[in-house]
Specification:
Elements (H helix, E strand, L loop, with lengths): L7 H12 L3 H14 L4 E7 L5 E6 L9 H4 L26 H7 L2 E7 L6 E7 L2 E8 L4 E7 L6 H6 L3 H18 L4 E6 L2 E5 L6 H9 L1 H5 L1 E8 L6 E8 L11 E5 L2 E3 L2 H10 L12 E7 L4 E2 L10 E2 L2 H19 L13 H6 L35 E6 L3 E6 L2 E6 H18 L5 E11 L2 H8 L2 H6 L3 E5 L3 E8 L7 H15 L6 H13 L9 H12 L14 E5 H7 L4
Parallel strand pairs: 1-7, 11-13
Antiparallel strand pairs: 1-2, 2-6, 3-4, 3-6, 4-5, 7-8, 9-10, 10-13, 11-12, 14-15, 16-17, 17-18, 18-22, 19-21, 20-21
Helix pairs in contact: 1-4, 2-6, 6-7, 9-10, 12-16, 12-17, 15-16
The structure holds adenosine-5'-diphosphate and magnesium ion.
Length: 572
């Protein structure tokens, strides 16, 4: 085939492929246009997951009659005029591509009326061809109607999911925008049913309640932090969930930069990092994080859908996000409290026709018997002074605090203490080591050997001095001092095994090593402790930064409050 210029309609279709991937992409572009137009109200009505029909109505500034035809042309925009503008973008759109791209692969009708114009103007486009422009009465603002999306691109159509799934994508998208713009009222209808409704009152807290419900919103803590000056200034704000609000996927971490929803694996990781040791490795936090930077310090023109951005000071942004989240967590994460005391399973209860809660017998420790309470009074943020009462089942330390009875898991608590001690020593490069009187020989599997062999030098900084010994084994001359209580031989072998296993969970090898050492050095459950030892342990726990969870993310303590006891004893 000879080389030739492609007809404009084909060019438009190719370009549309980049911007319009699925119905949710259409909603995103139209929604962003409404926000750019200064709308206070955006109403969206979708049918068949958006494939059949998407209607977006706003009360924004509208488009003047003489520009309506231009709006649906490619590279037509009112948002930038020169190359210089490209580097100080304050609007969500700027490429002048969206309407034209959508119109190239659907039947599009746009009606718009700015304030001060008598009547609205309607333009209809079909598969990229403008059919006509006619006056049409309407209120001030813009209505865009997109029908039969992908009717002329059968391959795209084939890749779409079930309407319900596509509607789900749209719902997630609109939810994110509603959170990023709490001052705008968002309505989303899907096949005539209300899927989302926010009032646009302006408060993020209100939006959270409207979107997630009161119960979830109550488990979210505000974040606010600014770092740096001038062009390097980063402001981080939003809400993050208590660790009790974790999810099975990372999708509940929502990021915005200057009001634009973005994807950024690095920043998502920064949020997750801040929760490290507060959540078990298979759980992920819920967070809505807004980031504000100088528009000149962020390049939004990296990707056709503008969902990825490049920061001029990426490290600064990463640090600000991580610190903002971490600091709030340190302040707010509370001791789980026993809220319901139940002696038997609900089924047993029902069979005997008794109510699910009753005063006796005394609570036993254990998972499903207890539920965690959502709201935490501020006085519980720090650990109060605790008076040790005794040990129970060789595993739990009972202690009295001003607000009730604390049940402390001795192993988990000690793990937390050692974890923080060792981390601090490692940071100062001052891990105390113990030279073994008699070198230890440990045998390794080939995988373990590969793992260790690469890191002999670095392991020395951790206090492990070792060298290859024959085919499969290593000779260990010294270990971190905290490991030497008890039987070193079995500990080192078990440690290597667990460490290499744990590495599959996605933590860094040093983090995993730290957790494993802390776990292996900590007192075990079932080990009896003297009152003196218990007091020391509780005091050390009070001094840790995160006393309430062990490094694996499990709780170190449970609180039974005085009020609960009163209630259970019928004193109130
Ligand atoms: P971009 O948003 O990148 O400028 P679009 O193709 O999305 O490109 O829109 C083209 C132009 O149409 C915009 O620059 C804007 O002037 C106008 N426009 C589109 N949607 C609206 C709307 N809802 N309200 C007011 N003006 C709009
Ligand atoms: Mg746009």
């Amino acid at each position: 085939m000879p080389i030739r210029l492609l007809p404009p309609e084909l060019v438009a279709k190719i370009a549309a492929g980049e911007v319009v991937e699925r119905p949710a992409s259409v909603v995103k572009e139209l929604l962003e246009n409404s926000l750019d137009a200064g709308a206070r109200y955006v109403h969206m009505d979708i049918r068949g997951g958006g494939r059949q029909e998407i209607r977006v109505v706003d009360d924004g500034c509208g488009i003047p009659a003489e520009e309506v035809a231009l709006a649906v042309q490619r590279h037509a925009t009112s948002k930038i005029a020169s190359a210089a503008d490209l580097y100080r973008i304050r609007t969500l759109g700027f490429r002048g591509e969206a309407l034209a791209s959508i119109a190239a692969v659907s039947h599009l009708t746009l009606v718009s009326r700015p304030a001060g114009q008598e009547v609205g103007m309607e333009v209809r486009v079909e598969g990229g061809r403008t059919l006509g422009i006619t006056p049409r009465p309407c209120t001030v603002g813009t209505i865009v109607l997109v029908r039969d999306l992908f009717y002329n691109t059968p391959v795209r159509l084939k890749f779409l999911r079930q309407p319900r799934t596509e509607a789900g994508y749209i719902h997630t998208l609109v939810t994110d925008y509603a959170l990023a713009h709490p001052d705008v009222a968002f309505h989303l209808l899907s096949d005539g049913r209300v899927a989302l409704h926010t009032s646009g009152s302006g408060g993020l807290r209100d939006a959270l309640i409207e979107i997630y419900g009161l119960e979830t919103a109550q488990q979210m803590i505000p974040v606010e932090k600014a770092l740096g000056e001038g062009e390097m200034r980063v402001r981080v704000f939003g809400y993050i969930g208590q660790p009790t609000l974790s999810r099975a996927t990372r999708r509940a971490i929502t990021l915005f930069v200057n009001g634009r929803r973005i994807r950024d694996p690095g920043l998502t990781y920064a949020v997750e990092e801040a929760y490290r040791t507060l959540l078990t490795s298979d759980r992920h936090p819920v967070a809505i994080i807004g980031i504000e930077v100088d528009p000149a310090a962020v390049d939004v023109n990296v990707h056709p859908t503008k969902s990825e951005v490049k920061f001029a000071y990426a490290d600064q942004v990463f640090a600000a996000v991580q610190r903002a989240v971490r600091e709030v967590l340190q302040e707010h994460v509370a001791v789980p409290r026993i809220t319901a005391v139940r002696a038997e399973s609900p089924r047993e209860e029902r069979e005997r026709g008794r109510p699910a809660t009753r005063p006796l017998p005394l609570p036993r420790l254990g998972g499903p018997l207890f539920e965690e309470e959502e709201e935490v009074p501020p006085e519980e943020k720090g650990l109060p002074p605790l008076r040790v009462l005794g040990q129970m089942a060789g595993t739990y330390i009972l202690a009295e605090g001003p607000d009730g009875l604390y049940l402390i898991d001795q192993h988990a608590a000690h793990e937390r203490i050692l974890y923080e001690q060792l981390a601090a020593e490692r940071e100062r490069l001052s891990i105390r080591t113990q030279t073994l009187l008699e070198p230890l020989i440990v045998e390794l599997t080939p995988q373990q050997q590969a793992l260790l062999g690469e890191r002999l030098e670095e392991l020395q900084k951790w206090g492990f001095e070792m060298e290859p010994f024959g085919e499969r084994a290593y000779r260990v001359r010294s270990v971190p001092a905290i490991l030497t209580r008890g039987d070193v031989r079995t500990r080192v072998a078990a440690l290597v095994e667990e460490w290499s296993e744990g590495l599959r969970k996605g933590l860094s090898w040093e983090e995993q090593l730290l957790i494993t050492i802390a776990c292996h050095s900590a007192v075990r459950a079932g080990q009896s402790l003297s009152p003196e030892e218990m007091r020391e342990l509780v005091q050390m726990l009070e001094r840790t930064r995160m006393p309430r969870t062990c490094p694996h993310g499990r709780p170190t303590m449970i609180l039974l409050t005085c009020q609960q006891l009163q209630r259970e004893f019928g004193r109130r």
